[in-house]
Specification:
Length: about 290
């Protein structure tokens, strides 16, 4: 694996008869069905909603490389994690740009996209581009990661892609993310690295810093770091005395090791964390955990 050790390759050398723009079809007799089989099919989703700018930029960046199909939430579902809709029916709306929206969670979108909505089985599922990095304990809450994990659960390779923002590590000087960098990182990985070793047993959780030039970026395979304890909620009191509560983002966190996702973003590197929802702790695996009566 990239340290993962992805192998670099040229898409043209891998598929020598296929020009991505397909202009050669004018002068060459080629079976269109054969061409269709060679073009990667990607299901796109996110948690920010079908009209989010990150999703639109990802689509525009990849549309000449792969056949795309978009199924995303009707409204913003940030923080939805891996949740699914069980207490009400879901409805699907097709929009003028061809994107489908679902009155459900990010995981619902991938579930319906694979089972019912997409015209084909995808070669890859990509969730994003998220507004803000998803690192450390955020993976427990992230709808972006939840959508990718749903694809993994259905045995499809998947990527979650997020762009640092809000003065997070990798974006200390900026509130708004650089979606174009994130989209170009995904395109670069798909075009120039051999991802065939990335199977459906894991998700590639990718976070990109808020930088200007793609050429200067270093890709680093990382482990999941830690933000530490969550902040207490923000409490607001209305004129009538009613209290309201808001979840607040961490503004202080402890130092992370060099191989973590958080440290990679601090160093303005692209973090690529292979993750999997294996909840079994090592003490159970090595049989050092026991329950003893008092």
């Amino acid at each position: 694996l990239l340290n993962l050790k992805f192998k670099k390759y040229s898409p043209i050398s891998k598929f020598p008869t296929v020009n991505r723009e397909l202009n050669f079809l004018i002068d060459t007799k080629i079976d269109f069905s054969s061409i269709q089989k060679l073009i990667m099919k990607i299901l796109l989703s996110n948690d920010d909603g079908y009209d989010a700018p990150g999703l639109k930029i990802l689509y525009e960046t990849l549309k000449n490389f792969a056949e795309l199909f978009v199924v995303a939430p009707e409204i913003n579902n940030s923080g939805a994690g891996c949740s699914i809709t069980t207490n009400k029916p879901m409805h699907v709306t097709e929009h003028s740009n061809g994107f489908l929206s679902v009155t459900g969670t990010p995981a619902d979108c991938v579930y319906l996209g694979i089972h019912e909505l997409a015209p084909w089985h995808p070669d890859l599922v990509i969730s994003g581009i998220n507004l803000g990095a998803n690192m450390g304990e955020d993976l427990l809450y992230s709808g972006t990661v939840g959508a990718a994990l749903e694809a993994r659960g259905l045995a499809y390779p998947s990527i979650a892609i997020s762009a640092a923002a809000f003065h997070q590590p990798g974006s200390l000087a900026y509130m708004e993310p650089n979606y174009k960098i994130s989209a170009n990182v995904v395109l670069d990985l798909l075009q120039n690295y051999n991802l065939q070793k990335i199977d459906s047993s894991l998700v590639l959780n990718i976070n990109t810093p808020n930088v200007v030039l793609l050429d200067d970026l270093t890709y680093k395979v990382t482990s999941v770091g830690s933000w530490g304890s969550r902040n207490p909620p923000q409490v607001q009191k209305a004129e009538n005395g009613q209290l309201t509560y808001w979840t607040s983002h961490r503004d202080v966190y402890s130092k992370n090791g060099q191989n973590t996702d958080i440290n990679a973003l601090e160093e303005n590197m692209v973090s690529i964390s292979p993750i999997s929802p294996n909840f079994t702790v090592d003490k159970v695996k090595d049989k050092t955990f026991s329950l003893d009566k008092k």
